[in-house]
């Protein structure tokens, strides 16, 4: 578990402060050769290196690995590991969604969004009750489909709601909230029924984690925890500053660089 004693002491000494720095000692426990665009972890301890055309799902101890690749050779736009038993793989160029299980074996037939007049959707993620969230770049709407692919939620034009252009690049649902990342303006938060709540002014991100209501992100190769309720940020020290992607869990830190994945424990 992350050591937060320094942070707690900081808040006791400076109760009005909104920013703190925490030094953490790390120990490198494993280095895995592998190239990819980013690393992801799920809620049961598996990690995945996501590449252009394939990705894996690995267990640290005992070692175990599954691999997924699509013979169509279309670029994987995003992977959602929120439900490890129902992993969503989205291909933006083909407007296609593939659902796979915990062994990365496809379940059911491929979903082609154009068949449902949803060919302009550029983002997809899983939602509660086996649903799927989509973002339509033509109508600027969030759309939620049920397990039978029927529309059950359709928001109003988001640009009109927030009063500015929106060009999101990442979306994820966590703990009854939907997070839509717009690098230019920040993270737009909606409830699970699509009602706009607020925008968090953290800009310039490509992706982030949401854990225990904290938004975990990297910027300028630094790790930050942001609590939307308290509007407090913590900067966490890292074992190295050159990396492509980062994921944080209660027990490990995963850092992906150009050639390999480094896995650290906390001392």
Question: What characteristics describe this protein?
Answer:
single chain; mainly beta; 5-stranded mixed beta sheet; 4-stranded antiparallel beta sheet; 2 helices
Helices, strands, pairings?
Blueprint: H1 5-13, E1 19-22, E2 26-33, E3 38-41, E4 47-50, E5 54-59, E6 64-69, E7 78-80, E8 87-91, E9 96-100, E10 111-112, E11 121-127, E12 131-136, E13 141-145, E14 151-154, H2 158-162, E15 170-174, E16 177-182, E17 186-191, E18 196-200, E19 209-211, E20 214-219, E21 222-227, E22 232-236, E23 245-248, E24 252-256, E25 260-266
Parallel strand pairs: 1-22
Antiparallel strand pairs: 2-25, 3-4, 4-5, 5-6, 7-8, 8-9, 9-10, 11-12, 12-13, 13-14, 15-16, 16-17, 17-18, 19-20, 20-21, 21-22, 23-24, 24-25
Mind explaining what this structure looks like?
There is one protein chain. This protein has helices spanning about 5-15, 160, and strands at about 20, 25-35, 40, 45-50, 55-60, 65-70, 80, 85-90, 95-100, 110, 120-125, 130-135, 140-145, 150-155, 170-175, 175-180, 185-190, 195-200, 210, 215-220, 220-225, 230-235, 245-250, 250-255, 260-265. It is mostly beta strands. The relative contact order is 0.16. A hairpin with a 3-residue loop joins strand 24 and strand 25. Helices cover about 5% and strands about 50% of the residues. The chain has a five-stranded mixed β-sheet, covered by helices on one side. Strands 2-25-24-23 form a four-stranded antiparallel β-sheet, with no helix packed on it. A four-stranded antiparallel β-sheet has the order 3-4-5-6, with no helix packed on it.
């Amino acid at each position: 578990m992350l050591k937060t004693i320094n942070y707690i002491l900081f808040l006791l000494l400076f109760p009005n402060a909104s920013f703190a720095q925490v030094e953490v000692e790390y120990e490198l426990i494993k280095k895995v050769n592998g190239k990819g665009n980013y690393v992801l972890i799920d809620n049961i301890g598996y990690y995945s290196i996501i590449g252009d055309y394939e990705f894996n799902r690995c267990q640290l101890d005992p070692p175990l690995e599954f691999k997924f690749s699509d013979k169509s050779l279309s670029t994987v736009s995003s992977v959602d590991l929120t439900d490890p038993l129902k992993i969503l793989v989205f291909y933006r160029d083909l407007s296609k969604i593939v659902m796979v299980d915990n062994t990365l074996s496809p379940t059911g037939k491929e979903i082609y969004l154009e068949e449902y007049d949803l060919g302009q959707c550029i983002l997809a993620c899983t939602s509660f009750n086996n649903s799927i969230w989509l973002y339509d770049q033509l109508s600027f709407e969030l759309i939620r489909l049920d397990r039978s692919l029927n529309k059950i939620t359709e928001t109003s034009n988001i640009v009109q709601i927030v009063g500015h252009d929106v060009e999101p690049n990442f979306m994820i649902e966590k703990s009854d909230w939907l997070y839509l990342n717009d690098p230019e303006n920040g993270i737009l938060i909606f409830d699970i029924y699509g009602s706009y709540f607020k925008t968090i002014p953290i800009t310039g991100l490509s992706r982030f984690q949401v854990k225990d209501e904290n938004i975990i992100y990297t910027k300028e190769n630094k790790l930050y925890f942001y609590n939307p309720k308290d509007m407090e940020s913590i900067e966490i020290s890292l074992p190295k500053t050159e990396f492509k992607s980062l994921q944080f869990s209660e027990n490990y830190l995963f850092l992906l660089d150009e050639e390999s994945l480094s896995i650290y424990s906390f001392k």
